[in-house]
Fold:
Amino acid sequence: MSARLASFFSAAVVLGVVVIAGGVSLAAAPELDYEVFKVHVEPVFLKKREGIARCYQCHVEANNAFSLQRLDPGQTGWSDAQSRLNYEMSSRLVIPGDSANSRMLIHPLAPEAGGDLFHSGGRQFKSQDDPDWLAWEDWVNGQ
Ligand code: HEC
Structure:
């Protein structure tokens, strides 16, 4: 094999490895599991935290990106169809596999815990050890 041909082949091999590695890393981004969302993420939107309003109170049909479905009269939880819409809305505010850059997690988190400097709804999570926040993190990171 000539030197030129050999270097062509080795370049092709390197390129192939890069393409394959790229494909693998894309495939590794976790899916946002709907069932996990329904059981572990969504209920927190309705949960009353001490000394602070519930997400739902301010974010029901809100005109910002975090906009929750309105509960049907007399209902304390969402129907499956409504949960699907909450799931789609929430999915747009997170980056699968990258909880640290997921707006839904960072915006309501206290600044001293790594959250945004200001959220009109206050510091909903005082630390990243909050079990509800951890459940959201697991959902985003597919754990
Ligand atoms: C007292 C009212 C209030 C409560 C309670 C509240 N929020 Fe908010 N939130 C707001 C308002 C107003 C905004 C828009 C202005 C801003 O970004 O602060 C906002 C913005 C947001 C945004 C950014 C939306 C966008 O357009 O990018 C997210 C995400 C968010 N809130 C999540 C939450 C979560 C999660 C909870 C509950 C754990 C919560 N909020 C509780 C009032 C509230």
Residues 32-141 form one domain.
